Amino acid sequence: MLPxxxxxxxxxxxxxxxxxxxxxxxxxxxxxxxxxxxxxxxxWGNRGYALPDSPFTxxxxxxxxxxxxxxxxxxxxxxxxxxERWEVRETRNFFIPVDAAFTNYPEVRDVHSPLVDLCxxxxxxxxxxxxxxxxxxxxxxxxxxxxxxxxxxxxFRDADGRTTHTGYVESGGNADDFVRLSDxxxxxxxxxxxxxxxxxxxxxxxxxxGERRIGSRSTEGDHRLSDKGxxxxxxxxxxxxxxxxxxxxxxxxxxxxxxxxxxATAPKIYGHVFHTRDSSGPLTxxxxxxxxxxxxxxxxxxxxxxxxxxxxxxxxxxxxxDARSGRVEGNAVAVVREDDGRVxxxxxxxxxxxxxxxxxxxxxxxxxxxxxxxxxxxxSTSGEGAAVPVSAESMTNDTVFLEWR
Length: 405
Prior knowledge:
By secondary structure, this protein is mainly beta. 8% of the residues lie in helices and 36% in strands. It contains 4 helices and 25 strands. Strands 3-2-1-25 form a 4-stranded antiparallel β-sheet. A 4-stranded antiparallel β-sheet has the order 7-8-9-10, with no helix packed on it. The chain is globular. Residues 1-44 have low confidence and may be disordered.
């Protein structure tokens, strides 16, 4: 249902070398070029980017997103938290334009967008994607924002209920502070997400000939369409990573700390852990031939270390698994008792790999808490010690934890 490493010099050199392997041998578009960064980004797998200093980019910070609704207002509040005292360090607000698709409803074509996952899912309005466990939702919603949380990608729905365009919203603006990047009468653009540096919006689109593709539009200049590679339609979301940026069309995408591999899933594709790609596109049967299957994993929470992944298992416990062999390591971590009647889903792993945050709720009902309060817990990935409740009144059952730097 409704998710930094403290890099050492050797890791930084390895990641930058990897990114060069991915991008230096191919031509770069204008949006992919830029000066060398002054410092690395504190975000897994994207250390080629320099970020402005803010509470959202500092180490030991938890970032959440919550959708807010009013009679004449819809917006997303993104908050940076102190994970010890659970005090807000900073809040950024993103107004949702009136034409932006943040929910699906009868008599209009469903729009595939992580913003719908965050804002528009209820018992009578399901997620536009096939699976909406929080291990799936968290990386989708994270992809809406650039690394510094300054811009949010959106999909605009025209009055005809069918034509869709991509765009973005600046943080801290008002309802009129948005940019529509296309306006073609037959546009079919969905799954809008931000590039890591916020300089382009990426999406899936259908050509006039019916071909399914991945594209991007620069946030500057004339916003012309740049084709990035094949897609499999709108049914799976995008995640954009690396410098130069590359898109993966899959679910539960998490880059390894060293940037060499990623977790991902897609229908009919075997495996959970894949090598990073040097081009944009969906997972394929060919990529699955060298993938690692994590035994019994039904929900990927994130990387615990370069070679270890935290999963929710078929028995609804959490286990650390070896990303090379796929075998289980360590103890089973139970967040709720077997007779509790509720389930736990994982969202983010801490940068040091020692803790993760889980949401506890009734099966198939994330909104079961009174007054909309969520039940979130900080849990040891090793299973040692008791889970610690997250005490913050502003968090609701719809809050999504995006990152733990």
